[in-house]
């Protein structure tokens, strides 16, 4: 039998939380998924809340990392919006369990962890806001564009992808990135 690491436990919890929700997951269920006794999980973590924090923070970190990668270039605001959209979709598809848990279970975090994750979310959203604002300032996007609202609109569209998008469907990843970008750009112009 292979010995499980804390990362294995967190990954298993991410899958279970994404599929069944925080309240629909017991340590026994998670243990069954991992092939161990539920009580054995406590040798790696202090409890289910600690697992939720770890999964949500991991998901938040993936989004922030994608934004940093997009912002690390000298791209135009239009290209940067494209890269931010592509990065967001990449996280949703490459880290489905962590991303879904981050997007749907954050309200079940304890108040201190929830504030920490909300601060991370604000940092992430600022990448979109500042890029859109730079586009408004450069006369690339509409002068009457509200960067805060535009960010909310774009992220709402992107976050809904988790509920309906199937990579095996008619639109591959690149096509969905480009289609959502064209839709967002039309609203920003």
Give descriptors for this structure.
single chain, 189 residues, mainly alpha, Tetracycline Repressor, domain 2, 8 helices
Would you kindly provide a brief summary of this structure?
The chain has 189 residues and is mostly helical. The protein has eight helices and no strands.
Describe the structure.
- The protein is mainly alpha-helical and about 190 residues long.
- It has helices spanning about 5-20, 25-35, 50-70, 75-95, 95-105, 110-135, 145-165, 175-189.
- The N and C termini lie far apart (about 60 Å).
- Give the C-alpha Rg: 19 Å
How much of the sequence lies in strands comes to under 5%
Distance between termini?
A: 58 Å
Count of helices? 8
The oligomeric status of these chains comes to: single chain
How many beta-strand segments?
0
Number of domains: 1
Q: Which architecture does the CATH hierarchy give at level 2? A: Orthogonal Bundle
CATH superfamily: Tetracycline Repressor, domain 2
Mean pLDDT: 94
Regions with pLDDT < 50 over 5+ consecutive residues? none
Structural class: mainly alpha
CATH class: Mainly Alpha
One letter per element, helices H and strands E, the order comes to: HHHHHHHH
Helical content band: over 70%
Shape: elongated
List the helices and strands and how they pair.
Layout (H helix, E strand, L loop, with lengths): L5 H15 L6 H8 L13 H24 L5 H18 L1 H10 L5 H27 L9 H18 L8 H16 L1
């Amino acid at each position: 039998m292979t010995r499980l690491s804390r990362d294995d436990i967190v990954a298993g919890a991410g899958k279970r939380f994404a599929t069944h929700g925080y309240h629909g997951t017991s340590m026994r269920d998670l243990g069954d998924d991992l092939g161990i006794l539920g009580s054995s999980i406590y040798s790696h973590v202090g409890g289910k809340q600690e697992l939720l924090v770890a999964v949500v923070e991991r998901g938040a970190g993936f989004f922030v990392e994608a934004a940093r990668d997009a912002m690390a270039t000298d791209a135009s605001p239009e290209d940067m919006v494209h890269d931010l959209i592509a990065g967001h979709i990449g996280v949703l598809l490459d880290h489905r369990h962590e991303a879904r848990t981050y997007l749907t279970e954050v309200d079940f975090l304890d108040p201190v962890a929830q504030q920490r994750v909300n601060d991370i979310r604000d940092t992430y959203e600022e990448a979109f806001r500042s890029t859109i604002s730079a586009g408004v300032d450069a006369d690339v996007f509409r002068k009457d564009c509200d960067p805060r609202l535009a960010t909310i609109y774009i992220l709402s569209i992107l976050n809904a992808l988790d509920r309906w998008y199937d990579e095996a469907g008619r639109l591959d990843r690149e096509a969905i990135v480009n289609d959502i970008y064209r839709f967002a750009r039309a609203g920003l112009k």
